Structures are given as C-alpha cells and as structure tokens.
Amino acid sequence: MKYISTRGEAPSLSFGEALIAGLAQDGGLYLPEAYPRLSESEIAGFAGQPYADVAETIIAPFAAGSVDRKTLRAAIDAAYARFDHAAVTPLVELGDNLFLLELFHGPTLAFKDLAMQLLSRLMRHVLAVRGRRATIVGATSGDTGAAAVAAFGDIDEVDLFILYPKDRISDVQRRQMTTFAGGNVHVVAIEGTFDDAQALVKALFADKRLRDEFSLSGVNSINWARVAAQAVYYFVAAAALGVPYRRVSFAVPTGNFGDIFAGWIAKRMGLPIERLVIATNANDILARALATGRYETGRVEVTQSPSMDIQVSSNFERLLFEAYGRDSAALRRLMGSLQKAGGFSIDSEPLAAIRAEFDAVRIGETETTEEIARLWRESRRLIDPHTAVGVGAGRAALRARPDVPMIVLGTAHPAKFPDAIERATGISPPLPAHLADLFSRQERFDFLANDAAVLETYIRQRRASKRAAS
Fold it and tell me: Under CATH, what is the fold of the domain 1-122+222-432?
C-alpha cells in the first residue's frame, strides 16, 4: 500500500514512511492510493466480534508492506488492554433510533485514545526497525494532547512537544498533559487559538531543514494512521445494528474533521452509511461551507465545547481532494487561496458530491446546555458538551430520516468538563479512580509567544538538553 499527498508534489510513501512523516513535504496530507473494499459477508461477520479482531481486519490492508500481521495484532491487543470497558466502544440506546457510541473508555477519557494508543505502538515499531528517533510536535484543542502524552510519554525513541491555546481548554484537559512527569514530554501554552498553534506546527513541517534536523513527526489527525484507526469503530457500531442489511447514519462532533472523515473512509470501504452529519458549535465554518459553498475563516468563538473551537479544519483538505477527483492542482489552488485570502469557493460539482453524503448542523451554546440537561432529566445520563452538540445535531437529522438509525459519537467523558455539566444539571461528575488525584498533582509547562522562530529555538534547546543529560 502506497500513500500520496493531496497536493501532488511529494513522493509517494509506504505506510511506515507516512506514519513517521505525518505531514507531506509539500504541505499536503497523505491518503492511500486506493481503498480496500470489504464484502457484505465480511461486514456482517463483525457483529459480536471482539473490537481487536475488527481492528486487525480494517487496519491490516493499510499497513501492508510495513507492519507484519503478527506485530500489528500485538500492537492492537496492547493498545486496547488499557480500556475500562470490555466492548472498548459500547453502544447504548438514547431513544427511538437514536444511539450513543461511547468512545471515552480509554486512559484519557476521550476518543483520541482509540487511535493514539495504537499509533504510539506502531510508530515505536517502525522507529526501532529503522534505528531512528523522532521529534513529535502536535497542536491540541484539548484531547489530542492528553492522549499523546499518555501514549508516547514513556517511549525512549520519541521527544514529544505538545502546543495548546492558553486558557482555551478545560482544567482537566490541561492537567492531563501538564502533570505528566516524563522527561521526554514538553507541554507548551501558546498565546492565541488552536488554529494559531496548528499553524505553528505546519510551519515547522513546511521547513525541510527543520524537518530533517529534528526528525519531525506528527500525531495530529494529519497523520493517516490515526484516521485509519478511527474507521474501526464505525464498522463495530454499524454491525451491532444489523449492517449491511440496513443502513445507518452517524452524527459526529466536528473540529479538525478527522473523526468524521474516518467515517467517510469506512463508507469507501463498503460500510452502508446513509448520512454523515457534521455537528458544529458556534465555530461553524463547515456548516457554512456546505450551505453556501464558501469556506471562509472567521474569528474563533470560545465555547463550552473547546475541542471544536476551530476555524481551519485540516482534514477537510482530504475530503476536498477526493471530491475534486484527486486533482492536486485544484487542491493546491484552494489551499493557496485559504492561506492568502482566508477562504475559497468550492466548485459546483465537488460541492454537490460533498452534499450528497454529508449534512451539517450548527448547535449553539444554549442548545448544548439544554441537550445536556435533557438527557440527564430523561435518562439520568450525563454527556459532555461536545457529545451534546453531536446529540443535538443527530436529533435534527433524525427528524428528516426517522427510519434510519442515528449513531452519535460520544467523544469525551463528562468529567472532563465539570463546569459545563454542573451548569446544565447541578451535578459535578467525579473523575474515574485513576485520575482522582489529578488536581493535587504538580503541573509542568512552558509559555511561548505565537512565533515560529521562538518555537524552533525552544525545541532545539530542549533536544540539546536531553542529549547532554543522557
């Protein structure tokens, strides 16, 4: 399996090479040259299978040629051994044809664990085989950073630098990163928004000199392996509801577009998905893009669902590449306009192709709070604000197609956002036992200006200090 860049000006890579590279040298994102296709009987057979078995079947074709089947299975088993539910991603019923897929049973209580725990093991294997080290630099709107620290924090072959927007994530999200004691972890608060932090990361990757000097790698959803790993739970959930002998839809709380793009990948692989519903908060660039055809950044709004407080959804580039028939020149034109003018217009045919598969629903702050309160009132079930955005959007889309089951992705544990939960319900959800002392742990982080040169110097100094210490 070979991987190509969306922008068409970087060499094709193997799975292992794309895994380590993260972002392509031309600034594009990697995608497989072709998608494996599963038969109806294979998909039907997933019903009742252990999560690890389904994961092996889905991921193996993507990793072929870089990771042997035995190594892949060992990595999968180790990745999901740390989850606190036997099903890994249990599916629960919320109402008539409305279901919640709980993706928060991993060590950091967010859906990011499902990909990150596996990514760290695969990356460690590839690095060891090649005798290499890597400097991982990632931006987080909250959950990615914590998941990366938990997954990579004890790996000798890696130096991990995580950037987050100062004062724009929850206290729990921040402390899950800043209280880790490992010497290879560096957590950095950046003045600005997630988009600013993400732009700094992309600037590093765009500099070939720095990429080579630092041996840069990425763990944001720009990394293809994360998207591939996230496709697994779409198959698991759909099979539990009788797919492929019926169709299902998914509503996905959406920020950087990686999680819902994984659903699109699952559909390309043969999963009969009726609609993919993009659930956005007030930062509704994707809803506006689908409604008007104009993708245009605006001011980032601070909301109670901070992981979605994003204006530049990086993985949308992958969908545009596919909608434009894999026309790299067209894609470069769009991304150039985004960089220079802050937006672009989607041509009519690609826009129609996107609308044929996706809906987009904006859920505001009041609606989010009301959805949290409603579920608590009706079923004594607590959901976090991101999941509440997904449930609200799922309900709206379900009204248009009430006969098609709607599966909402539950992206985080409610205890990660206690203030929002308490405002809506009067209940302050406790953290699980393994995080019960989180607020008594010592924090360690640095604060940097939103400046690429400052970040470059910081990374170089921390890497030099570690080499001197060893």
Answer: Rossmann fold (3.40.50)
Nearest Cα residue to 392 out of 275, 256, 241, 252: 252
Which amino acid would we find at residue 55?
A
pLDDT tens-digit map of 170-209: 999 999 999 998 789 999 999 999 999 999 999 999 898 9
The tokens 């921390």 sit on which residue? 462
Pairwise CA distance, residues 101 & 90, whole Å: 6
Distances (CA, A) of 244 to 89, 97, 204, 270: 19, 16, 43, 9
Element (H, E) at 385: helix 385-400
101 secondary structure, DSSP code: E
* Cα distances (Å, whole numbers) of residue 414 to 199, 230, 394, 407, 432: 29, 21, 18, 18, 11
* Separation CA 38–CA 231 (nearest Å): 13
Q: Where does the pLDDT of residue 154 fall: very low under 50, low under 70, confident under 90, or very high at 90 and above?
A: confident
Write the CB contacts of 207 (distance below 8 Å, at least 6 apart in sequence). Answer: none
Beta strands at 98-102 and 406-410: parallel, antiparallel or unpaired: parallel
Contact 24, 218 (CB under 8 A): no
Please state at what angle helix 69-80 crosses helix 112-130, rounded to 10 degrees.
140
Note the pLDDT of residue 257: 96
Q: Is 112 a catalytic residue?
A: yes
Contact (CB, 8 A) for 297 and 314:
no
Parallel/antiparallel/unpaired status of strands 30-32 and 2-5: antiparallel
Task: Report whether 276 contacts 359 (CB < 8 A).
Answer: yes
Domain edges within the chain: 1-122+222-432
For residues 282-305, give the mean pLDDT.
96
Contact call for residues 355 and 290 (beta carbons, < 8 A) = yes
Contacts 24+ apart (CB under 8 A), 376-379: 376/424, 376/425, 376/427, 379/94
Give CA separation, 470 vs 156, 184, 194, 464, 466, in Å: 11, 12, 33, 10, 6
Q: How far apart are CA 65 and CA 434, in angstroms?
A: 38
Return the percentage of the chain with pLDDT > 70, whole number.
Answer: 99
pTM for the whole structure: 0.95
Find the catalytic residue in 2, 70, 112, 340: 112
Average pLDDT across the chain, whole number? 95
